[in-house]
Design goal:
CATH superfamily of one domain: Immunoglobulins
Strand content: 25-35%
Largest sheet: 5 strands, antiparallel
CATH architecture of one domain: Sandwich
Distance between the termini: 186 Å
Radius of gyration: 44 Å
Mean pLDDT: 79
Order of helices and strands: HEEEEEHEEEEEEEEEEHH
Shape: rod-shaped
C-alpha cells in the first residue's frame, strides 16, 4: 500500500513539474510575441487603372508604447513633443506628420524595406508597439507620379471583435500628381483676351498724328507769312511817307 502511494506521489510530482516547465516558456513567449507588417502599395490612375507601385522604399520607426492603457512616446521620440492623446483618424494623421518632421530634423534611421513587383514591402519580427511608417519616394507612372503620406501602425492591431492581430496589413493612401503642364504658345489667343495684334493698334493712329502735325506746321507757316507780309507793308508805307 505504501509502495502504491509512493508511486502515485512520484507520478503527481512529475506531472506538476512538467506542467510548470510548460507554463514558464508560454508566459515568456506571450510577453515577447512579435508580429509583422505588410505594406501593400498600389494606386489608381486618373483613367481608373490600378497599378502596383513597386520600387518605393518604406521606413519604419518604433515610436511609442502602451502604458496603463495610454500611448506614450519612447526612445528618441520622447523629445519630439508630439501629443498622442487623440487617436482618432485625424489625430493619428496629425501625429504621423509631426513625427515625420522630427525624423527628418534629427535624421533618424529606421528599418527599411522596398516594395516588390507585387507592391508589397514586408517587415518582420516587430515587437508590440506603435510604429511610424512612410515613404519619401515618388513612384513615376505614365505621365505622373504617386506619393503617399506618413501613417501610424499598431502591433498588435485590435479588430472590431477585440481580437489581437499581430500580422498587420496596411494599404497606404496615395495621391496622383500629373507631370503635364499647360504650354503657353506665342500668339495663341484664349477667350476674349485681346491678341498681340489687337493690342498693337497704335500704328493705326499714325496717319492721324501725322496729319495733325502737318496742319500745325502749316498754320505756323501761314502765321509767319502773314506776319512778314504785314511787316513788309508797314515798312513800305513808312518809306513812302
Amino acid at each position: 500500500m505504501k509502495r502504491r502511494v509512493g508511486k502515485i506521489s512520484v507520478f503527481l510530482g512529475t506531472c506538476s513539474l512538467l506542467l510548470l516547465c510548460l507554463m514558464i516558456p508560454q508566459n515568456a513567449l506571450a510577453s515577447e510575441k512579435t508580429g509583422s507588417l505588410i505594406v501593400y502599395y498600389h494606386g489608381v490612375t486618373p483613367q481608373g487603372n490600378q497599378v502596383m507601385l513597386s520600387g518605393a522604399e518604406f521606413s519604419l520607426y518604433k515610436v511609442g508604447e502602451k502604458v496603463e492603457n495610454r500611448w506614450e512616446l519612447q526612445g528618441d521620440f520622447e523629445k519630439s513633443g508630439v501629443c498622442l492623446e487623440d487617436m482618432s483618424s485625424s489625430g493619428q494623421k496629425k501625429a504621423a506628420e509631426q513625427l515625420k518632421k522630427f525624423v527628418d530634423k534629427e535624421k533618424l534611421e529606421g528599418k527599411r524595406e522596398t516594395a516588390g513587383q507585387d507592391g508589397k514591402a514586408i517587415f518582420y519580427d516587430l515587437e508590440e508597439s506603435m510604429y511610424l511608417c512612410f515613404s519619401d519616394d515618388e513612384v513615376a507612372y505614365d505621365t505622373g507620379r504617386f506619393r503617399s503620406a506618413p501613417f501610424l501602425v499598431f502591433i498588435p492591431e485590435i479588430d472590431e471583435n477585440g481580437n489581437c492581430i499581430y500580422n498587420v496589413r496596411v494599404e497606404p493612401k496615395n495621391e496622383w500628381v500629373s507631370d503635364d503642364k499647360p504650354e503657353d504658345k506665342p500668339g495663341q489667343n484664349t477667350g476674349d483676351t485681346p491678341s498681340k495684334g489687337e493690342n498693337a493698334k497704335t500704328g493705326d493712329n499714325t496717319p492721324v498724328e501725322l496729319l495733325v502735325k502737318i496742319i500745325a506746321v502749316s498754320v505756323i507757316m501761314i502765321v509767319l507769312l502773314m506776319f512778314w507780309r504785314n511787316r513788309g507793308k508797314r515798312d513800305e508805307e513808312q518809306s513812302n511817307e
